[in-house]
Amino acid sequence: QQQVKQSPQSLIVQKGGISIINCAYENTAFDYFPWYQQFPGKGPALLIAIRPDVSEKKEGRFTISFNKSAKQFSLHIMDSQPGDSATYFCAASKYNQGGKLIFGQGTELSVKP
Amino acid sequence: DAGVIQSPRHEVTEMGQEVTLRCKPISGHDYLFWYRQTMMRGLELLIYFNNNVPIDDSGMPEDRFSAKMPNASFSTLKIQPSEPRDSAVYFCASRSGVSPLHFGNGTRLTVT
Lengths: 113, 112
Description:
The complex is a heterodimer of chains A (113) and B (112).
Chain A: E1 4-7, E2 10-14, E3 19-25, E4 33-38, E5 45-50, E6 56-59, E7 62-67, E8 72-77, E9 86-92, E10 102-103, E11 107-112
Parallel strand pairs in A: 2-11
Antiparallel strand pairs in A: 1-3, 3-8, 4-5, 4-9, 6-7, 7-8, 9-10, 9-11
Chain B: E1 5-7, E2 10-13, E3 19-24, E4 31-38, E5 42-50, E6 53-56, E7 65-71, E8 74-79, E9 88-95, E10 102-103, E11 107-111
Parallel strand pairs in B: 2-11
Antiparallel strand pairs in B: 1-3, 3-8, 4-5, 4-9, 5-6, 7-8, 9-10, 9-11
């Protein structure tokens, strides 16, 4: 009930391409779904987050798509750049417990020039 | 805003020794979290505090682990005695109310 499953484990995309990372959750009580970006030697940093009252949220080149009935959400990175190469984590929690996050296993993204 | 500050950045110790990791949260943040990151288990929540009081320590793996928050600007995570399987990156994070969680840059612990 507490798991968040993330795929793929690793992803290689050409510069300018679209990167897509998927997550699925089990606990229907979750109502806060952030994505974090982590560079080597650094802590995770919030990239974008969504709540289930909307099906999509866009910030610049980053978009979250959310499917409440399927209990799935995904991150799309448009026009992927080499500087986007990092590890991406999806997470889920109850909104009023926004720090008590359950993280996916992470996706290592490499954007080739 | 200096962000969440953790020390040391790297710690190498021998099995059986006591290890103390330190964290200074962002000023004004009233929630503090300790996470552990390993290849096998990913990012796991160990414990979190609200207004310096431990709220949920269900993620603390064993009695060898303890955490304290003596005041709003300082927290420690102690492992005594340390074991090789404790090797991981330990992150401290803080937030205020329902604001996003801010992570420090972690302490990489190696127990030989």
